[in-house]
């Protein structure tokens, strides 16, 4: 399985919509969906920093390694 992105969990904790989150981070809702669904192959550190700023969390709260 590899790296699992937990953005959906963090959004649910904060009761934040994908649209609101996308706007605050500077992404399109479609790109947020790509991240949430695990289809992203890479993420810029600047984007990860914006996500952590908006969600007030650490990168480890968003990313988890799961053994295949």
From TrEMBL:
Q: Which InterPro entries match?
A: Cro/C1-type_HTH, Lambda_DNA-bd_dom_sf
Extract the SMART domains matched here: HTH_XRE
Give the residue spans that cross the bilayer. none
Classification via PROSITE patterns: HTH_CROC1
- Tell me the domain of life: Bacteria
Q: Which residues form the HTH cro/C1-type domain?
A: 13-62
Q: What is this protein called?
A: Helix-turn-helix transcriptional regulator
Q: Which organism is it from?
A: Arthrobacter ginkgonis
């Amino acid at each position: 399985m590899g790296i699992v992105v937990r953005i959906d969990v963090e959004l649910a904790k904060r009761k934040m919509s994908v649209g609101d989150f996308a706007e605050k981070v500077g992404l399109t809702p479609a790109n947020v969906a790509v991240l949430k669904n695990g289809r992203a192959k890479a993420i810029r550190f600047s984007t990860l920093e914006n996500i952590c700023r908006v969600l007030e969390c650490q990168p480890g709260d968003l990313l988890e390694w799961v053994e295949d």
